[in-house]
């Protein structure tokens, strides 16, 4: 029974994560924590194991999605590598912060973080991108209607932002895309589809670094991971296909509502255990 449940969880998380460039961990981590607390199907999940297992799964989600997006030619590989200069060390720092965190503190902090992410997703289409720094890196992209869109960023600012994104990835196991995608769209004027695809490639790189660190710390439940991986792989492919063929706004609305509900539930659970 747990294998069917985890397979479905991995599939849904990967589909939504791939569509929005979030990685899926923002769904997997709270789901594992809640299932462990309130059911007998999943047991023995600590914050460290939830995060470590989630990051391992995101290697497969990220690889699956990235391969699909590379075929669509929507991945800015060079920019992703620049961002990884910051997110890689940030992910390791996040793993270090995660190792001694208490369950109640984790639940409250993660719940608040999810609600903030929901708010960012709500306002992302209502904020005009900042003016590009002409002294930084400037790139162009031909969108689906044939228009040439220019975007760009200052490498130092991008690396600094990526460091904090990586830190949240290692700390919460969420992949970092929930912060990086809005940052790329709002701060660097990335087209949305390009931001999502590039984020998934960066998530793949960060997840590899973070998961190896969690493996060394023994923070992986391999039994649950093996059940989650098939869903994560196929979900990554499906999410990339959906992203290409339809507007993701309806999914964003549902995701925002889902994140708020989960965030409030986790905060309540954390406060109750204080």
UniProtKB/TrEMBL annotation:
Q: Which domain of life is it from?
A: Bacteria
Q: Which UniProt keywords apply?
A: Cell membrane, Membrane, Transmembrane, Transmembrane helix
The compartments listed are: Cell membrane; Membrane
Question: How does the protein associate with the membrane?
Answer: Multi-pass membrane protein
Give yes or no: UniProt keyword Lipid biosynthesis.
Answer: no
Q: Keyword Transmembrane, does the record have it?
A: yes
Instruction: Write down a Pfam family by its short name.
Output: TauE
Residues crossing the lipid bilayer are 49-70, 77-97, 103-123, 156-179, 185-210, 222-242, 248-268
Instruction: Assign the protein's first listed, main location to one coarse class.
Output: membrane
Tell me a GO cellular component.
Answer: plasma membrane
Q: Which family does it belong to?
A: Belongs to the 4-toluene sulfonate uptake permease (TSUP) (TC 2.A.102) family.
Q: What is this protein called?
A: Probable membrane transporter protein
Identify the species of origin. Answer: Salipaludibacillus neizhouensis
């Amino acid at each position: 029974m747990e294998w069917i449940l985890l397979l479905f969880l991995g599939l849904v998380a990967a589909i939504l994560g791939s569509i929005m460039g979030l990685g899926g961990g923002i769904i997997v981590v709270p789901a594992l924590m809640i299932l462990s607390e309130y059911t007998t199907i999943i047991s023995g999940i600590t914050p460290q194991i939830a995060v470590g297992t989630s990051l391992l799964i995101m290697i497969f989600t990220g690889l699956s999605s990235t391969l699909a997006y590379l075929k669509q030619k929507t991945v800015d590989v060079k920019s992703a590598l620049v961002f990884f200069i910051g997110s890689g060390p940030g992910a390791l720092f996040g793993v270090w912060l995660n190792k001694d965190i208490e369950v109640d503190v984790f639940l409250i902090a993660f719940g608040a973080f999810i609600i903030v992410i929901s708010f960012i997703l709500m306002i992302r289409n209502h904020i005009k991108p900042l003016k590009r720094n002409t002294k930084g890196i400037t790139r162009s992209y031909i969108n689906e209607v044939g228009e040439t869109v220019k975007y760009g960023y200052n490498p130092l600012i991008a690396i600094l932002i990526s460091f904090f994104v990586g830190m949240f990835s290692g700390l919460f196991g969420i992949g970092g895309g929930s912060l990086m995608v809005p940052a790329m769209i709002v701060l660097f004027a990335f087209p949305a589809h390009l931001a999502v695809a590039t984020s998934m490639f960066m998530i793949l790189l960060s997840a590899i670094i973070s998961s190896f660190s969690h493996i060394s710390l023994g923070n992986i439940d391999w039994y649950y991971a093996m059940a989650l991986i098939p869903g994560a792989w196929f979900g990554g492919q499906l999410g990339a296909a959906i992203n290409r063929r339809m507007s993701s706004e309806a999914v964003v609305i549902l995701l925002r509502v889902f994140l708020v509900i989960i965030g409030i539930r986790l905060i309540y659970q954390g406060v109750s255990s204080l």
